Amino acid sequence: MKRIAGFTLIVLLVLPVQVEAQFSIFRKRSSADRATRDLEKRQRDAGEQNAFNAVQPMGRGSDTRRDDHLWSSETAYTAINRTGNISITTPSRLGIHHKTEIQSMLGAFYFVPNILVKHRWHTGKQLWWATRHGVYFPSNGLTWAQKRGFSSVIDTTISVSQVIAIRNELIVSKPVGNKLSCVPGQPFLIITAGLALDYSSTLSGHNVKPIDEHILGARSTALIGDGLLIIARIRADAQLTEDMIVEGGFRFLTGENSISDVIEHHAALNYRLTNNITVSPGYIVSFGNLGNSNPQLYPFFDLTWYFGQKPRRHISLFGRN
């Protein structure tokens, strides 16, 4: 009897300890599970909003913008090797060196075969500058206009001489960055100024009169082989949203024996349809004593396809090129 009583006493003493130990393990597991769930919830909440960029979720893909979306072919930027774009009405380009690209106006190539080379000489936080040099041949376009009876462009009774024009241009760009941006080296505004000297001549004598039409007439000196054409311009490219860029500027054109000096204003909205395709509707206004009206308004449209790797940040975090 004493043995039974002793065994019962031992069981009563040990059992609560074992039960308490088991419950303690469950409580520890429950606390660990609750801590894990809380951590996962905080991570999910953080993923819904990026503290550094409220527009971009945390942990998602990085910014898909390319430098050459904002840095257009008319700026001092040069496409990196094997990277570029193909456009309809603005210069297409291909990077052949990390500071050199070739350009061509493909939309006008049938009428005015052209090729240009742009080299970037300096890249800094304050200013970028580059030079652009090239050659174009307007005779094909003059012959085409003559065959279709465009007498306001060229006399339909004369023979068209071979015209060669050479361009030399200085381009200076100033990028304006956003100090609050989380994308290093990515400006939101680029201001560009350019000065181009186009000299043209004919191989067999000059027999074409200046063109009395807006757009073409402003470039008449170079198109008909009549000497020096000077083009001074200023433009701005601004990033409105991740998918939208606005551009606009003014261009002053004056040439030897041209009918009138001309000021042109253009503006366009570049919208990114995909990572590699943009559409650009806009307009051009020409101010000058040409044609039947002054000023003259023209619609503008461009379609651009970008190819090659995504170029980003020519300037390092420490400001070196």
Explain the overall architecture:
The chain has 321 residues and is an alpha+beta fold. It has 2 domains: 1-48; 67-307, Porin (Beta Barrel). Helices cover 20% and strands 39% of the residues. It has helices at 2-48, 67-70, 139-147, 220-223; strands at residues 84-87, 92-97, 100-104, 114-123, 128-136, 163-177, 187-202, 227-241, 244-255, 262-272, 277-287, 296-307. It has a 12-stranded antiparallel beta barrel. The longest helix has 47 residues, at 2-48. The radius of gyration is 33 Å and the shape is elongated. The termini are far apart. Mean pLDDT is 84; it is low at 316-320.
What is the fold's blueprint, element by element?
Blueprint: H1 2-48, H2 67-70, E1 84-87, E2 92-97, E3 100-104, E4 114-123, E5 128-136, H3 139-147, E6 163-177, E7 187-202, H4 220-223, E8 227-241, E9 244-255, E10 262-272, E11 277-287, E12 296-307
Antiparallel strand pairs: 1-2, 1-12, 2-3, 3-4, 4-5, 5-6, 6-7, 7-8, 8-9, 9-10, 10-11, 11-12
Q: Could you estimate the helical fraction of the residues in percent?
A: 10-25%
Task: Output the structural class.
Answer: alpha+beta
Domains (count): 2
Mean pLDDT across the residues is 84
Q: Quickly name the level 1 CATH class of the largest domain.
A: Mainly Beta
Percentage of β-strand residues: 35-45%
What's the architecture of the largest domain in CATH terms?
Beta Barrel
Shape: elongated
- Rounded to the nearest angstrom, the distance between the terminal CA atoms is 96 Å
Q: How many strand elements?
A: 12
How is the main sheet built? 12 strands, antiparallel, barrel
Looking at CATH, which topology of the largest domain would you report?
Porin
Lateral arrangement of strands in the main beta sheet: 1-2-3-4-5-6-7-8-9-10-11-12
Radius of gyration over all CA atoms, rounded: 33 Å
Number of separate helices: 4
